[in-house]
Amino acid sequence: MASKKWGGRESINARAYWKPLLPRPCCRCGRPVVPRPWLHADGWHPDHWPVSREDGGTQTWPAHAECNLSAGGRRGAEITNSARKRRQGMSGV
Ligand SMILES: [Zn+2]
User: Fold this and answer.
1) Which of 20, 23, 43, 60 is deepest in the core (most CB within 10 A)?
2) What is this structure's pTM?
């Protein structure tokens, strides 16, 4: 629960800004970001783009949750798990 982390109000503001503008091409993979209400956080995140937050970027752009998380390199297990789930579920592509 570190206070300096991206998230909280900043993230909520970015989500509120982007939500009515979806779908938009994902800044990571280029495929459209469409809200997926059955997923956590609708399956998308406001990502820092074109400048990463680590490099001082403040602009955001929508990204798929899985793209955003894999780009961040954190929470690798979660990615692996969801990739595995996708492979098993293989529907609707
Ligand atoms: Zn993507």
Assistant:
1) 60
2) 0.68
Q: E strands, 28-91, where?
A: 32-33, 44-48, 60-64
pLDDT digits (tens, 9 = 90+) for 3-26: 456 677 888 999 999 999 999 999
- Residue 4: what are its φ and ψ, rounded to 5°? -80, -5
Q: Where are the domains of the chain?
A: 9-89
Distance from the CA of 35 to the center of ligand 1, in angstroms? 12
How many angstroms is it from 92 CA to the middle of ligand 1?
Answer: 16
Give 88 Cα–ligand 1 centroid separation in angstroms: 20
Tens-place pLDDT, residues 29-73: 999 999 999 999 999 999 999 998 889 998 999 999 999 888 765
CB 78 within 8 A of CB 69: yes
CA of 4 to the centre of ligand 1 (A): 26
